[in-house]
Design brief:
By secondary structure, the chain is α+β, with helices and mostly antiparallel strands. The chain has one domain: Anthranilate synthase (4-Layer Sandwich), CATH 3.60.120.10. Helix content is 29%, strand content 32%. The chain has ten helices and 22 strands. The strands form three sheets. Strands 1, 2, 6, 7, 8, 9, 10, 18, 21 and 22 form a ten-stranded antiparallel β-sheet that branches. The chain has a nine-stranded antiparallel β-sheet with strand order 3-5-4-19-20-11-12-17-14, with helices on one face. The longest helix is centred in the last third of the chain and has 19 residues. The protein is globular and about 55 Å long. It binds the ligand C=C(O[C@H]1C=CC=C(C(=O)O)[C@@H]1O)C(=O)O. It is an enzyme of class 5 (isomerase).
Length: 399
């Protein structure tokens, strides 16, 4: 199978449609068809449910895959595919251009950018008011969404192919549970952030937090990156995530380090601060699902303290995040696997798509700046869909 075929999402074997695709770390993993669903439940029971699944189901590929929601108490959605295959993903750049063809989209921001900026200001007031509390609120990640309605069904394969042109991100697509508005919705995205991978006794997490827009002009792009590296506010926002990852993984590890310290990471449209954290597990049998449970949601998508931040998110965002800012990945029978943070993602349901983007709010954040950051984070998905922020095809603009 060529990589382009894999990325384009057209299943070739047995005529089974692709139910899962993950391209990251130079590899493509593909699930075709859906053999058995894993019993659904909250993340706290994930490791037990996955273990019980493999015991009870002797046939089929020895791997399950799917998505975890943002909210730890909500049910996840994992399944065993009919066919599982892997391939080298180094040459996995997409060939297809925009997926929108001549489709037109109407785009409705939900909430409107000005309402989001007001929510950031309200959040900053809560952070300031809590300064003297025993456990002050120090960080909250607030998100907003864009609701797209197209004249055509969204083409997930074309979207994946277009997203895969950026080799710095992990491209994913996974089935979501049926809902009233869609028999088979999909979560599709291109995330730069690894929640956790586990192979044998090796564990890796690569949290990101602290962001700046990229620019076509090289000088402006360099200044944007340098500004991010110097920013005390972004360093603080980032360190909160690194500390939380160390705290969550330490009990499981006999070694845990950040060998390269914090570095600048780039995607095609964003600069980020990132820290690669690597460890050796005390017990190589610790399943990846247990590590994901210990980590999720990190302060890269929720905040600190976690429960208090989640409460503020629920109050200020005004919608259910569903599987945005959860995780997408897989786990095998040995307990190995990898889970990516499901940011820069969209839920596709026929002619409707909902895109999400968030930004970390800490003391010193600026409501207009954070709103602009979410706009910049939408660029990757919108341009992969072949549309601008008004829903017009990009090709027309160039003509
Ligand atoms: C929550 C998102 O990004 C997170 C990951 C990287 C940088 C982030 C930031 O700088 O705010 C966010 O923590 C998102 O893209 O929706």
């Amino acid at each position: 199978m060529s990589s382009d075929k894999e990325i384009s999402g057209r299943a070739t074997e047995c005529g089974l449609a692709e139910s899962f695709l993950l391209r990251g770390h130079g590899r493509v993993l593909i699930g075709q068809g859906l053999r058995t669903e894993v019993g659904r439940g909250p993340i706290g029971s994930l490791a037990a449910r996955v273990g019980a699944f493999f015991k009870a189901n002797e046939g089929g590929p020895r791997v399950v895959m799917g998505a975890l929601p943002f909210d730890r108490s909500q049910p996840d959605y994992l399944f065993q595919p009919e066919i599982f295959s892997t391939a080298d993903g180094k040459d996995g750049r997409g060939t297809s251009s925009a997926s929108a063809d001549a489709a037109r989209c109407t785009i409705t921001p939900a909430p409107a950018p000005s309402v989001f900026a007001d929510a950031v200001a309200a959040c900053l007031a809560m952070i300031a008011a809590s300064a003297d509390d025993a456990e002050p609120l120090t960080k909250v990640v607030l998100s907003r969404s864009l609701e797209l309605v197209s004249t055509h069904e969204f083409d997930a394969a074309g979207l994946l192919a277009a997203l895969a042109r950026d080799p710095s991100i992990a491209v994913f697509s996974t089935l979501l549970p049926a809902e009233a508005d869609a028999p088979r919705p999909l979560l599709v995205g291109a995330t730069p952030e690894l929640l956790v991978s586990k192979k044998g006794d090796e564990v890796v997490s690569h949290p990101l937090a602290g962001s700046a827009r990229r620019y076509g002009d090289p000088g402006a792009d360099r200044r944007s990156a340098a500004g991010l590296e110097r920013s005390e506010k972004d360093r603080r926002e980032h360190q909160a995530v690194v500390d939380a990852v160390f705290d969550a993984l330490s009990p499981y590890c006999r070694e845990l380090n950040a060998p390269e310290r914090t570095t600048l990471r780039s995607t095609a449209s964003m600069w980020h601060l990132g820290t690669r954290i690597v460890g050796k597990l005390r017990d190589a049998d610790t399943p990846v699902a247990e590590l994901a449970c210990a980590l999720h949601p990190t302060p890269a998508v929720c905040g600190l303290p976690r429960n208090r931040a989640a409460e503020v998110i629920g109050r200020l965002e005004g919608y259910d995040r569903g599987f945005y800012a959860g995780a997408v990945g897989w786990a095998d029978e040995k307990g190995d696997g990898e889970w990516y943070v499901s940011i820069r993602s969209a839920r596709l349901a026929g002619k409707r798509a909902t895109l999400y983007a968030g930004a970390g709010i800490v003391a010193g954040s600026d409501p207009a700046g954070e709103t602009d950051e979410t706009s910049a984070k939408f660029v990757a998905l919108l341009s992969a869909l072949g549309i601008d922020e008004h829903g017009h095809p990009l090709r027309e603009r160039a003509a």
